[in-house]
Amino acid sequence: MTRPTAPHILDVKLCMLGFGSVGRTFLAMLRDTEERLAREHGLRFLICGISTRHSGFLDATGMTAGDLLGIVHVGRDDLCGPAVPAEELIETCGADALIEATVLTPGGQPAAEHIEAAFRHGMDVVTVNKGPVAWHFDHLRRKAERNGRRWRFEGTVADGMPVFDLVENCLRSCRIHGFEGILNATTNFILEALGDGRSFDDAVAHAQREGFAEADPSHDIDGLDAACKVACLANVVLGAAITPDDVPRDSVRDVTPEQVTAARAAGRRLCVVAGGRLDDDGVHTGVRLTELPLDHPLTTIHGSALGLILHTDLMGDVFTAELHGEVQQTAYAVLADLLALYGRH
Amino acid sequence: MTRPTAPHILDVKLCMLGFGSVGRTFLAMLRDTEERLAREHGLRFLICGISTRHSGFLDATGMTAGDLLGIVHVGRDDLCGPAVPAEELIETCGADALIEATVLTPGGQPAAEHIEAAFRHGMDVVTVNKGPVAWHFDHLRRKAERNGRRWRFEGTVADGMPVFDLVENCLRSCRIHGFEGILNATTNFILEALGDGRSFDDAVAHAQREGFAEADPSHDIDGLDAACKVACLANVVLGAAITPDDVPRDSVRDVTPEQVTAARAAGRRLCVVAGGRLDDDGVHTGVRLTELPLDHPLTTIHGSALGLILHTDLMGDVFTAELHGEVQQTAYAVLADLLALYGRH
After folding, report:
1. Beta strand pairing status for A43-51 and B268-279?
2. Considering only CA atoms, which of A288, A271, A275 is closest in space to residue A238?
3. Structurally, what CATH architecture does the domain formed by B168-323 represent?
4. Which SS3 state, helix, strand or coil, does residue A182 take?
5. Residue of A nearest to B160 (CA)
6. Is the pLDDT of residue A5 over 70?
7. What SS3 class is residue A184?
8. Contacts with A243 (C-beta within 8 Å, 6 or more apart), sequence order
9. Do B317 and A322 touch (CB under 8 A)?
10. Shortest distance, CA A318 to any CA of chain B (angstroms)
């Protein structure tokens, strides 16, 4: 944030850990909105470092997303150079903010250590990896505060669907005493496929062909992904201090097509509901197979959509949903966080 | 905003035009959250004037909501004194902000004139009356700017459901190119009652008994209320310059029970959809009877609930809903606007 390139334009230098589809889509979004970001938000983003497992990029002066994508596309490797260890990237690249977009690992490491290192080196952090928020929220929140840095994580729950931004900006005087959501599209898709008469294995294969499930979909199927999102929400909006290991969860592995069709016949829909509730005994959470009545708002969540109901004291129940939860929406979460950090207010 | 009563507590003086159920509920909310507002937001609100058609209240030093409600409850009139004309209140009370909560009148006057007068007298304005935003958005926006004042109106569309706050804070880098919503609970309720076999007159009477329809429900039934909300949305989020008179609208007056049941039999639901769309030809709007497929998110909007889908470029379609749209939610909108104006950021 040091070299104004034009009056009123703030240069913000970014570095990235992980450069999968979210990272690429995010850079394409930066490239495509460059003019809008400068004119309306007074910002220009420059990439000065990327670290992946197999390749890297380091350029302390920084490069626009458009320029960088040009090089990435013509380069013979994924990026321009050899792999740069994450620690080295954080120490040397001189970025204003780290975008942490590595894949989820149970325990949230080494992502949480990298975030802590970024705070120490004077960076703000945006993460789309749920692990650090799910397992280390309170620790990292304190580290950010102690270092005078800021930490945002809109992309950890339901891609770019406003959740934490909504709570922070639109429900700021409310107490939130619970939530329930459909926060994993893969299991939602599999349950619908079972209802269409497919076997479980066939439903999983179908979900994989349609891009809803990864090669190893066990994190989704067995509820770990949803439990991570529940832990993120419980820690951030209910003030809990839990990890995903504390969230009881149901797997869809043993659901039969008959269960889904029986629910349908009874005018209900079998869903995996990710919930949390704060009462006098503390915070109660779960990722639970639940039959919802058909007038329940969550029953309109289909395909790649995700939805969440927040139970509040002053504003009652507020429902929010993204109708398409693709990689574009996750990339948007990163941009939204960056604008919350550096945009004009 | 002049008399700090305690370290870090900002006193904000309010005056109110209109003191119906929203005004009373808002004061009760202020009273009940007084401690929270002081501790978490550093704010204390003092009421220094209220003007209704039949009675008034003026106290330039201001009174807390709790104290004022005590007097209002024991007083022999609605308020403590004789009616104070709106112009006089605005000129003399010395408030920091005007809360404009008078009832909707076609054309938006005299509410818009009062808002303009408030800007001239150095006040920010929060309105829950749709009229000024629906008929005079651009004019008042410029007046606010010219006077260095701020104007908020979250309560004009769907009570306290985050709409304008959502766009401003959570979708700030997006272009919004359209919206569709169920924004009038009365017609939604009447259509459901028709589907249950009631005649139109019976459905209206039922809606009145249940508190969904006013004594004269024609503004709802004939789509004016929804057209006002469409104009508000089109003006604010699509950059249109229209009034409700420009919004083509369907009345539910001529809908038969058979139409509703035929739609149901075809697996669809007949709804009044309030929509707007921005394309190369400009902004197109409407309040239209529409048969929605049952997997459409808006079909879960029942009873007092309201819902809105925003079509965006970067974030796809974002759906937001309030599951209960009572007077409490409208009062919350006023509080949300006040915190956006004066809360710590």
Report:
1. unpaired
2. A275
3. 2-Layer Sandwich (3.30)
4. strand
5. A315
6. no
7. coil
8. A134, A135, A231
9. yes
10. 5
Cα separations (Å) of A4 from A10, A11, A46, A48? 6, 6, 12, 16
The pair of structure tokens assigned to B263 is 């739609």
For the segment(s) B10-161+328-342, the CATH number from 3.40.50.720, 3.30.420.10, 3.30.70.20, 3.30.70.1170 is: 3.40.50.720
Please, which residues have CB within 8 angstroms of residue A124's CB and are 6 or more apart in sequence?
A96, A97, A98, A118, A149, A150, A151, A152, A341
Q: How far is A273 from chain B (nearest CA, A)?
A: 17
Size of interface A-B (CB pairs under 8 A): 136
* Contact between chains at B318 and A169 (C-beta distance less than 8 A): no
At A290, the amino acid letter reads: T
What is the token pair recorded at B187?
Answer: 């017609």
Distance of CA B122 to the CA centre of its chain: 23
Taking CB atoms and an 8 Å limit, are A173 and B336 in contact across chains? Answer: yes
Whether B315 sits inside 8 A of A329 (CB atoms) is yes
Q: Please give the ipTM for the structure prediction.
A: 0.95
| Chain A residues in contact with B321 (beta carbon < 8 A) | 297, 318-320
Q: Is A282 helix (H, G, I), strand (E, B) or coil?
A: strand
Q: For residues A44 and A342, what is the distance between their CA atoms, to the nearest angstrom?
A: 10
Contact A33 B314 (CB under 8 A): yes
pLDDT attached to residue B5: 53
Task: Find, among A179, A171, A98, A105, the residue nearest to A136 by Cα.
Answer: A105
* pTM for the structure as a whole: 0.95
pLDDT score of B251 more than 60:
yes
pLDDT tens-place string over residues A102-131: 999 999 999 999 999 999 999 999 999 999
The answer to whether A319 contacts B317, with C-beta atoms less than 8 Å apart, is no
B166 vs A contacts (CB less than 8 Å): 162, 166, 170
Q: Which amino acid is at B266?
A: A
Number of Cβ within 10 Å of residue A120's Cβ equals 14
CA distance A36 to A24: 19
Would you put residue B107 in left (φ > 0), alpha (ψ -120 to 50) or beta? left
Report the distance separating Cα A88 and Cα A83, nearest Å. Answer: 10
Instruction: Please give, rounded to a whole number of angstroms, the shortest distance from the CA of A281 to a CA of chain B.
Output: 22
Bridge partners (DSSP) listed for residue A124: A97
Chain B CB contacts of A332 under 8 Å are 173-174, 314-315
Count Cβ neighbours within 10 Å for each residue of A82-94 and write b for 16 or more, e otherwise.
ebbebeebbeebb
Q: How many CB atoms lie within 10 A of CB B344?
A: 11
A-chain CB neighbours of B319 within 8 Å are 307, 319-323
- What ranges do the domains of chain B cover? 10-161+328-342, 168-323
Length of chain A equals: 345
pLDDT above 50 for A3: no
Ramachandran region of residue A253, left (φ > 0), alpha (ψ -120 to 50) or beta? alpha
